[in-house]
Design brief:
Length: 278
């Protein structure tokens, strides 16, 4: 495989969300008290799991992408060949399993269930009204993966699991927003596509705002200045999103919901030490 194939393989794993999720979960592990070795295992497990999900997605969608003329997709251009990406997905999944279970059996099972949910999404759930469910499961189990890998294997607090699940649902709707029309043309009818662009724009900020509320008031102790600031920012962005929802085609709702997701993730990281508090 030449240099073009290597670059294409890297792009086909959806590097932006793959790296973003890896950095988030590794930072959360560090904030919760994981040592350097534990953080490294978490990073390897999440990176390989997310890469396997990205490659799986592009392999399963290659014929649809070809029919749609998606020349921005490496597999459509033939660099790499679909079988190479499929082999990479399988190898990454094996590595994910080994690294996840090395964090502890309970932690590994929690992470692998989340990865399996993402593969199920790629395999067809994304075409159903339950398209949000794999995101809720996958993101909701990430705090469990982190805490169950700590000494004593403490379970995650309910507020963290619920906030993670809400972040996942918000991420799903946000991710789909720009492509709803193309998805409908290709026969993909997940929940956002069924709701339509305008109602999805109205829906997207709701779970993210709810996640922010949980992340401010869920952890023990008083909400600090950073929590109140994050909640105020999230509320302002939610209002801007809903106002823009009725203003015709615009990228504003997508960008504002993305900013809300970043704010909620920041709030989660600020409470990383509360994940294992009992």
């Amino acid at each position: 495989m030449g240099g073009g194939g290597v670059r294409g393989l890297a792009k086909a794993c959806h590097p932006e969300p793959t790296v973003a999720v890896t950095v988030l979960v590794t930072a959360l592990a560090a904030a919760s008290g994981q040592g350097a070795g534990g953080c490294l295992l978490v990073a390897v497990a999440v990176l390989s799991g997310q890469a396997s999900i990205g490659w799986c997605n592009d392999v399963l969608d290659v014929e649809r992408d070809r029919a749609a003329g998606r020349t921005d997709k490496p597999l459509v251009r033939g660099a790499p060949q679909p079988w190479v990406a499929a082999a990479a997905a399988g190898g990454a999944l094996v590595l994910c399993g080994v690294a996840s279970l090395a964090c502890g059996v309970a932690a590994g099972v929690a992470h692998l269930v989340g990865v399996a949910a993402a593969w199920a999404y790629n395999g067809g759930v994304k075409r159903t009204a339950l398209s949000w469910l794999p995101y809720a499961v996958g993101f909701g189990l990430l705090p469990a993966f982190v805490t169950l890998g700590l000494p004593g294997h403490p379970g995650p607090p309910a507020w963290a699991v619920a906030a993670g699940a809400l972040l996942g649902v918000g991420a799903h709707v946000t991710n789909v927003l720009p492509d709803i029309d193309a998805d409908l043309a290709a026969g993909v009818r997940g929940l956002p596509q069924r709701l339509g662009r305008r109602r999805s724009r109205l829906l997207a900020p709701v779970p993210l705002l709810a996640a922010a509320v949980l992340l401010v008031f869920g952890p023990p102790g008083r909400a600090g200045a950073a929590g109140w600031a994050g909640l105020a920012l999230t509320g302002g962005l939610a209002c801007a999103t809903m106002r823009a929802a009725g203003a015709g085609p615009s990228r504003v709702p997508f960008l504002t919901t993305l900013a809300m997701a970043v704010t909620a993730v920041t709030l989660l990281l600020l409470h990383g030490d509360a994940l294992s508090a009992r």
